[in-house]
UniProtKB/TrEMBL annotation:
The lineage of its organism: Bacteria, Pseudomonadati, Pseudomonadota, Alphaproteobacteria, Hyphomicrobiales. It comes from Methyloligella solikamskensis. Keywords: Membrane, Transmembrane, Transmembrane helix. It is a multi-pass membrane protein. It is found in: Membrane. This is RDD family protein. Residues 33-154 form the RDD domain.
């Protein structure tokens, strides 16, 4: 059986040996630190995108006598989710910050992340960040260093080799 196929452990639970910490510890080495720095880089990029969208909406608001200003509330979350959908769900499987730090997001079974899963992953992350921050401490006890939003989205962050 090849490394990328799902096999069964002694207990009968399926797992993917491609992302097994025991057989590939190098994929997870320093991943938390890398993800934190990648988040800071991505937060700066998303903030810049929000400012650009804000300026465009402001100008459109002047031209439409304030009507376009109603768009800003709807566009605010779309920018962050769209950024993640296009980058994590794109060909590189990583945001700009993740690529800078050598991190890639993959589906837990080894497949590629779709744009919809990328947006869902971002939504879960921002909800966990704003609603219940301690949930982000889960990787401290997880063998693959996955956050709960990674687990719920069915993805795993690995070093880009």
């Amino acid at each position: 059986m090849s490394d990328t196929q799902t096999t069964t452990r002694e207990q009968g639970t399926p797992f993917n040996p491609a992302f097994d910490v025991v057989s590939h510890p190098d994929l997870f080495e320093g991943i938390l630190r890398r993800r934190i720095v990648a988040f800071v880089i991505d937060a700066i990029i998303i903030t810049i995108l929000w400012v650009i969208v804000g300026v465009v909406v402001f100008v459109l608001g002047i031209l439409t006598l304030g009507l376009a200003w109603l768009l800003y509330g709807a566009l605010f979350p779309i920018v962050g989710l769209g950024y993640n959908a296009l980058t994590v769900g794109g060909a590189n499987q990583a945001t700009i910050g993740m690529r800078t730090m050598g991190v890639k997001i993959k589906m837990w079974h080894g497949g590629t992340v779709s744009p919809l899963i990328g947006a869902f992953h971002a939504l879960l992350f921002w909800l966990s960040l704003t609603i219940f921050f301690p949930i982000l401490l889960w990787p401290l006890i997880d063998r693959q260093k996955r956050c709960l939003h990674d687990i719920f989205a069915g993805v795993v962050a690995v070093r880009n080799s």
